[in-house]
Queue: 3 jobs
Job 1
Amino acid sequence: MEKLNIMIVGVGGQGTLLASKVLGNVALKMGYDVKASEVHGMAQRGGSVVTYVKFGKKVYSPLIEKGEADLILGFEQLESLRWIEYLKEGGRMLINEQKINPMPVIIGKAKYPENIIEKIKDNYSNIITIDALKIARECGNIKTVNIVLLGLMAKSIDINKDVWIEVIKETVPQKLLEINLKAFEMGYNY
Amino acid sequence: MRKLMLGNEAVARGAYEAGVTVAAAYPGTPSTEITEYIAKYDEIYSEWSPNEKVSMEVAIGASIAGARAICSMKHVGLNVAADPLFTVSYTGVNGGLVIMVADDPGMHSSQNEQDSRFYARSSKVPMLEPSDSQECKDFVKEAFEISEKFDCPVIVRLTTRIAHSQSVVELGEKVDFTLKEYKKNFEKYVMMPAMARKRHVEVERRMAELRDFSNNTSLNRIEWGSKDVGIITSGIAYQYAREAFGDASYLKIGMVHPIPEKLIADFAKEIKTLYVIEELEPFIENQIKKMGIKVIGKELLPVIGEFSSQLIKEKILNVKTEIKVPINEIVPVRPPVMCPGCPHRGLYHVLKKLKLVVSGDIGCYTLGALPPAESMDTCICMGASVSGAHGMEKARGKDFAKKTVAVIGDSTFMHSGITGLIDIVYNKGVSTTIILDNSITGMTGHQHNPTTGYTIKGEPTRKVDMVKLAHAVGVERVRVEDPFDIKAFEKAVKEEIEAEEPSVIIALRPCALLKGVSYEGAQVIRKDRCKMCKLCLSIGCPAIVDKGDCIEINEALCIGCKLCSRLCNFNAIEKAGV
């Protein structure tokens, strides 16, 4: 592939950084030039987080801009809606059905939009939704949501599955490896 | 070997490859990971210092003693360390000395948007600025060479997008650096007026040499393309410019102080239309304009916030990006929040209830300024809570002090809160200081500090006892309270603000994310008992959800800290599955 722009969006604490770390290293293993930009510090405390991963022959800017993303992986419904303008025409969005209320909604100063997925699907054709929390629970650990989603994303990217598994083995601690590989498979085969 | 590295990790690798043996820092986003990665190298002594000034002085001492040394901080940290900076510029170095500073355009995690390049100019210290992780590593190594060659400290400036972006790095070999001989040399290292006057002459001579060096170093390079448009740029702006302009000629400046004047003049001669593209202040641009060269820069580009290639296209090339927005929906913002189980939530419940004026500080607890707590009145800089409360008292009198508290975290108190407390004691203040001891430096991602009992490498060490410390500086009323024991905590606050003498409350409860902190697991709301009074919602826990007809607890988020069940008047919140 010439160049791929991927965004991973979610809520601080959902494990988006691990997903982007694996993705970046998969691209590196394939010999691409890779850049990834992430959010640390204050914004990470339960705030809206976005990670950009770009790879191809040569990458300059680490940022992806509106209308440029080939693929967006949304860890949460509202965050998927927030970043949808970044999807390029025909680009694909993967949406985890999980909802996490932001503070303005919790304290009653704003409303969590209704029927987000339907509204997105009405306007974009290439949308896949998944209840990753349910799958993670079936898998035996609800903390593997990010790996389930990683598996789903891997299916949308034209890179051999073995490379993904190799990188997960290098990234995840040994004692959590088995459950994470299971979660990856369940996402991949969704 | 090729490795995908965060800019900060690459800086650490550069320090390792350069043979650094002493590294010191105070954590601060976006610079923190530099020293966390350095701590992984057994060859390097590393430490979290109590503040940036101390970290720079440790590095200066190590350099004078003959080692290659590095200290790292965020932009506002350099303000704290500015005092030693201006004088180490005069003394120069023995072993190489590199000062890392990370600016935060866009203020992702900062209280201002200052441009640290001006420090390089005003302290007369050379500054390098990398554009990706590979350059982070290479420039740090080169900075040590420059430091020793020109007998001066070297600042390497990052911005958030460099520090927190990953890109590919080719790892190199560690150079053989042996400790330089230590020689007593008071004319060089004792900066009294007579010696400093001579050293200032040396500084000016060195800067003249560095101006020549800047014209010839490969840190500054020209990439020729179409000569219709020429771009002078540095740092992350180079990447945005490359993407926005494509075929043009670029002068990429890696040494931002002193700038390569001759190289710039030669470049400008060849170019029809010349732009300077730099984030924040027109630092390079104004110097070029002073040379009499016509360039376009801040006439079109903002001095506020981060750039992007899209912004450059819009502002300079007048290319508007058409975005179709088919979904017309108000998307609520998602500001950062205190985590479920955060000990600060109990504190703010009390402060809000008592309607106190809260002189605030820097840390996770700054979030107490936002809804629903909305309790914090001020936040200026590290340590300003304590001294600020004292100033309020001196302006408005003791009765005002009875409605006021200072809140400051354990690490921030060590950083620069203690001096404010001494001021209160010494100058007959009566203010109340609440130290939020969550047993870690929280906001920057869990770094140890002098009160935690562990070093950066996780080794047990002596710890500062804050009760004894407060007593030692002359505060007689010192008490330790649990911010989750709301009734007792409220009573303590009321008593201490009433007392007409200085007082300290240590609000002790560890950060909920800390390893070893375990609560009993998710709670559930018993609908048969819940009266929908919504008191539990008032503490603003992200795990408690108002469903309209009922309140629910999100089991994936709740850790079972039970602050909500302690608050509930109807015993309606209990452990799930009971």
Job 2
Amino acid sequence: MERRSWREVADQLFRGGHRIEARGAFLSGSATVDGTAISVVGTTDHATIDAEMALRIASAILRVVREAPGRPILILVDTNGPSLRHRDELLGINTYMAHLAKCVEMARRFGHHIVSLIYDRALSGGFIASGMMADLCFALPQAEIRVMNIRAMAQVTKIARERLERLSRSSPVLAPGAENYFKMGAVDEIWSGDIGAHLAAALRQAVGPDQRASRGLERGGRHLAGPVAQKVRWYGRDRTIPATCDRQG
Amino acid sequence: MVGWAVSAASTFSSLVKTTMEHLEFTFPGRRAATGRKHAVLVGVVGSGNLEVLLEPKPLGGACQIVVKTAVAGFGEIWQAVLEDFCRRHGLGDLLVSINDLGATPAVVALRLDQAVHELEGSGP
Amino acid sequence: MIVPRTSYVEATARRRVEAVLDHDSFWEFLPPEERVTSPHLSQLDLPVAFDDGVVVGGGTVQGRRVLLAAQEGAFMGGAVGEVHGAKLTGLFARAVDERPDAVVLLLESGGVRLHEANAGLIAVSEIIRALLAARGRGIRVLAVIGGGVGCFGGMGIVARCCDAVIMLEEGRLGMSGPEVIEMAGGVEELDSRDKALVWRTFGGKHRYLLGDCEYLVEDDVAAIRESIHQALEAASGFELEQLEAEHALLEKRLRELAHLHDAIDMWRALGLPDPDTLPMLDLARFTPIAHRARSFWKGEG
């Protein structure tokens, strides 16, 4: 499948036109979907997320919260992951990433509907604080989503590559790809055809708390995340005697 | 996203040269294990270490031991260390579950003793 | 009388839990005898741990009710897999129901468990979402960072999503660990065997000087308990105004420090005297000097 540039993707998403601009690898602007104005932020050119980029995306989201109450936000994802530079660690890049995650969460609390679209590449730490914070996360079929490729994984874990590849065929846990993230519940839908219509439908969709674990269970890609979290949530709460006494009886 | 996991994972994996081995032993007990807790866990599954889980259970007076070890081929040594443990403490009606990542016999014996002390309430 | 210190750094996760909580107050959720282990590690024929490397439960600290989690650094570097992550996520859901005085995270982790790649990444994302949702509902979340592995990868983000971070001087906090930086950029980028360099990049003192941790304490369980107590009393919250203030602070950090390439240059830029001596100072002498850096960040400009 052909890779599409952010412009091609934006043109297909917003047939009526848009005002999205790229400044370096940073994307921001606005567009209209079904007569409703939405804000768009994101990255392109397989952006490396350094402290500056994380703060820039955070700025754009805070601005929407301040200046456009309630307006939906679309996050366009194309990233090679976090910067692996010494200087970014010195600056506390994890703090910048956490700040970005908090800004997305704050937008949600202020009633902004947040949707993300992985239109090209999404590597681990690059989208955990942005795209993965959205209420709904979508991907194009050719999207490359991964923690690490199988070759590097084999090197680091010292497990034979052939074995990892064989296991990947039956389990979505190891191998990269949008389809695996769909099965595990982290991607809500893979969009093909009229992506503009998909976006319009996504913006009409009601959203609630994090549903990824239950979707992963329904789709058979992640069996334990939901049930284990529920077990911890409810463990021993049906007991009537104080828990600590019971445990020592 | 991958910080120290890389180095930790590689240290971990370099120890795991063979496939996991599953061993089971049953020894007679002289007295039923009891404790102020219904289960105790000591140790961690780190390199050269192991975790030991003790659970008093009705097992017809026997001590049942289940070992999962990352270093295969040492069944006889396990047999000797565990037999010695059972002879010394004589605990029956006890399920012992072990996850091992290449601990030496001395470490295994130490963790087992620690676990018994903790179960019986005289431990730390 | 000299009361011997109880080392936090050298203790296992379980011992840390016992030491940080009031005596005999701990109640574990999904304890080891439930044997909720990682199916992914089993499938790869790798050893599992009965608690999948994280202890979760409830208890009290100086009489205050907390929910608490402790990651075991010795098991797979404390890395987060599907079960491990779900235990943390479930703890935050429980906190929203039970409204404890705080959720306390004793963190020690390299981030995502590569052996469960996608499941680990999604799990860390679910922790972040659950943590921030709980904070949005008024639940206070505290992180304690100490131990040999440090706190890296996605868990480095998790730590900074908390209300307050308590760091041991020996603790390390970051995104990509020194070995990863060296692997990506070569030894010229960062020599991971240069202990002093690694320490002043990721260590507790640098994090404290930048404002990435609120408390810097010695390797002593009593000191950690005291910091938790203080953090429970401190003003806290997760509102837009606070987030905007943090934003301004992070902009200022880039403005003042982004052009510098070593921690010592950064400390000098913060106006600290004799910055190259700071790594050697004990905390009693370091703390008054560090207050200057704290007021630098509070100042105008």
Job 3
Amino acid sequence: MARAFTMPTVRNPFSAEFRALLPVLLSTRGKIGAGRIERLRARRSVLSQSGTFVGHRRYELGDDLRHIDWSAYARTGELFTKQLEEEDRRGVSVMIDLSPSMLAGTPPRRLAALRLAAVIAGLALARLDGVSIVAPGAKEPNRRFSGVAQLPRLLDHLDKLPVATTTPAEATALALQAEAIGRVHWISDFAVPHDFSLPVLSLRRRGAKVFGWLPAVPEDDAPPSGGYLRVIDPESGHELAVPVDRAFQDELRGQLALLQRQQRRMFAEAGSQLWRWAQGDADVPRLSDYLPIVAACAR
Amino acid sequence: MNLMIDLTEPQFLWALLLLPVLWWLSQPPQPRRQVVSAHLAQWQLAMRALRRRPPRGSWLRFALLALAAIGATIAAARPFVPATDGPGKLVVLLDASASMAVVDGDQSAFERARDKLRATLAALPEHIDVTLLRCGGDLRRRHGVAARQCNDLGQPGGGLEADLVQLAEQAQTDDCVVWTLTDGQGQQQVPAVGALTMLPTAGPNAVITAVRVHDAWPLPTLMLEVDVVAFSLPDAPLAAVLQLSGAVTEPQQIACDLQSSVAQTVTVSVQRAVTGGELLLELQLSGDRLPHDNLHALTLPPLPAPRIAVLAEQDAGPFAIVAAAALADEVAGEVVALEAGVAAGMLLVDGGFVALQAANGELARRRVLTFGTRLSPEATSEPWLSPAPIDWSRSSPLTRGLDLSELRIERAWRNILPDGEAFLWWVDGDDRVPLGVLVDAGETASVHFAFRLEDSNLPLLPAFPQLLRRAFVRSYGQTETSIATPSVSPASEHDLSAPAAADDRALPQFGSQDVGLARWFVCAGLVALAFRAFVR
């Protein structure tokens, strides 16, 4: 008879220390790549500030002053930002896995995933023209952000993302609904690599460049030291009572290493790359722990 | 069949309330630490690679454990199937009278009854209390295991002294069943209650009903009077033969023409064998169904067959030796010389001296016949010339019926006779002076005369051989030799032609005993535990 267990929760993923670190991180020289076509259009947009005008939206703090429609300000007395078609095409998509399995780990993998999404999306807001947060299972599963001024809103959006059980295929379908898709940063635990193989390939066929991000937790490499443990799969609710001894530790370590090889092979076979990132001390985030993200995004 | 189960101590069933506790205890230990992992599959693969199984509870294992616990609990409550009503005791009345020895085929009726008893009693439930009464001959009572094994029942014999009808009616109760096994012989009717097994024994039968013995011991002549009777189903003359064999000098066969149910007496005179032994009397009749009562055996003791020693003075003449030889010939004895180392049963002394009397006058207990012999060296004898007149006892066993009126004695001796019963006297007025005495010492006796044979005409008298024989017989004491005549079967067992008849009646259904089921529940619990050991 299965006993009830308490699902780990992630409270306040964006602590004051992280929020203080984020502007510093975005102000580094690191770049973030976008899709090839979109990158050319973006360069042209930056140089000529041209593009197909599609409308206005109210000015928000942090918007590029060059996009302010001064004529409209003269007419109405309010600040509007011009919406150009090229903006949307210079962004990246960040797909984040909201499944319960992301709650595993100490601290939970979801914490690292949200912070990783915040950094990647923040870089996109700062360096590019926009970012799409694809979160299947969320109230707004596909939401766009543009302009670094929307960083707080982005963080708020990420903070409010629920825990939802979805499949990789559903996430892929959601990402493909975007009109144009360039670079996709897929943040997940890829616990079952086989389930991600076809979705990654379908993204590649649509021309997207997929970057896999796996927020690492200590349990990915080092099994528990020993004892009689109740192991719970947060996604399925299945559990297993396991007496852990040295032999079992060695065997489980081998199985986890095999899983990591399978994850890498899955992305390699799809012509993509998997980045494994360990966030370090979650309570006291340090810049050095997050610089590898910036470096990886610049590739 | 009563399948209702009752409990002796139902309060133990309260222990079943502990089954939830047992369920709780049967659960595998719960881990104290909890780990949330997205890699449960890897944990399972690691377990599988190490061929390990996670500790887990099993409904089947618990069911088997619960079954064992329930079995033990019910066993503690001592379940049983209540007894059914019915008799719990069996009294067997076994007719062991002489007629049950009738042989039919290769078994007698008694053996058939015993076999049937053994088979039936072996199949009886153990709780049935069995009592076996052997009626007929010596009454024997066996109870319990001894009754069930039918051991030590002996052989049929004697009459049926007990009234089976009365016995059966007295023993039969609601709780007790009587089972009578009889042939119906010697009974007016057979029991009307209880079970009954009839063993037919009807048929012709010849019987020696009595044997009377007239013994002349220590002489070899033996007179027998044998009463015989024959019974036949058709009243027709029966040709029988009475055969005597064994301890006789010459076997005899006497043909008897018997009438059915009419007793006859056959008188036979035989000469006993000197060595004694068993004298067999057998009445032979063709078709006799009960030959046991035709055979009688008389145990005859050996005759004295004495070795007679003779001691006579040189001038005593040949009378003593001749008399001893004649006596030995008559009683199948022999004359031996009186020498050192030669045993003699009787001593015949004529004259002289033989040390038989002690100084105190006590006479040695010997079979001695003396004529004018001094018995003690201290005795002072005086010659006594021509004692007359002479008289003799008419009642003494020695001289009764003898005529000694012609007895003449030329010389006798005074003071040589020991004290004893005088049977021959010299009559001196009113006094009688013994000339011959009999000294009776119980099993032995000695006869003493105050004169030698040479000094009288006694050897010439016709009564002398008879007197000599009587002295010999008397010297062997007055105790009669007894030839035991075996008991004959009672008259009720002779006629096998008209037994009481009735139909067999089977034994009723006996009541059952409480059947305890506790051990079966214990076994069920143990089996459940054994299965549980193999269930993972």
